Structure formats: C-alpha cells, structure tokens
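BUG: 3D viewer hangs when loading the predicted structure for this chain

Environment: internal workstation, default settings.
Expected: structure renders.
Actual: progress bar stalls at 90%.

Input used:
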Amino acid sequence: MGQSQSEMHNEVALAQIQGLYKKSVSECPSGNLHLHEFKRIFGITHKSTEEECAYMENLFRSFVANQDNTIDFMEYVAALHLVLRGRLEDKLKWSFKVYDSDGNGCLDKREVTQVIKTIHSLKMHENSSSCGDLSPDQICDRIFKLVDKNKDGEISLEEFLEGAQRDKWVMEQLKLDVRPSGWFLEQQKKCSQT
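Structure tokens produced before the viewer hung:
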C-alpha cells in the first residue's frame, strides 16, 4: 500500500514535528500532558459535543502506556510517530485499543457501536453526506457479520486485523484515521497565524 500523490504532498516535515515537540515542552514544562491539556491541543473546548469529548478521552487513554493518567514526553513522541508515520498494522492495533474501552482484549458490540456513533457524529459535523445510508448500529452489525469469524459475539485483535485488511469497507469503518497529516498541517497553519 503506497502513499497517494496527495498524501505524499501533505507529508509532515520533520521540522514541523520538531516544532510541535518544542510547543509541547513549552506548554507542559513538567513533561506530563494531562487530559485537559490534550483536549486543548486538539481544539476540544467546553463548546465541543459530548461525543467529541468522549472520543478524545478514549484517544488519550490509548496513548497512556504506564496507566498514570498523563502522557509523558516519550509517550507523546511515540503517539505522534504512530499517528503521523506509523505502519498500517500498528495503526490498526492502536485503533483496536481505542475501541477496547474495558481493556479486556476483545471487542463487543457495545464498544464497537459506541466508537462508531462518535465517529458518525463527528463526520456529521464535518460533512453530512460522508456517513452513508447505514446507521451506527447497522454498521456494527455488518462489521460483526464480516469480522467475527468464530461467531462468539466478540472480535479479537486477530479477527480485527484480518477483517480490516481483508475487506476495504471494514477497513474504512474500523481504522481511526482522521487524516492526521492534514489535521497537523492545518494546526500548524493556525498557530503561525496567531
């Protein structure tokens, strides 16, 4: 899977990543990024929807490796690298971790539906035509039909990886790719204007 011409054009330069690192150190001199700071970096404010806040909380938890409820500098660097330059398999493993809200290593329909509803809500804010004709519950049911190979009502990491890589539609539904390079470049542009 190579990068498309537009993806390569929007590739994030190393200097831009270094600028973000410097900004993180200046905004969080302790070296620890707390949830409220993480939300602020991503533009989540008191005006944001409940779904957006919950989604950012899941993302935050997925990057906290040592369970101390903060993202230290090394976790931050690893998260940036994963989101901006990571391999597809690593991004899918991270997506699985975000979906697995109870941390038991399997996804049930409640967990999958919850994330899909949040993504659906976010997409509706961006572009009402981007969500298609299926409801979040219908998307979840279809995912389970295509991915839950042993029909036990849960999706294991192995099933998640295989299902996403086998079926393009499933990949689009499960992958938590919110065009991070585009978002990052947009944030850099906003910061340079202020």
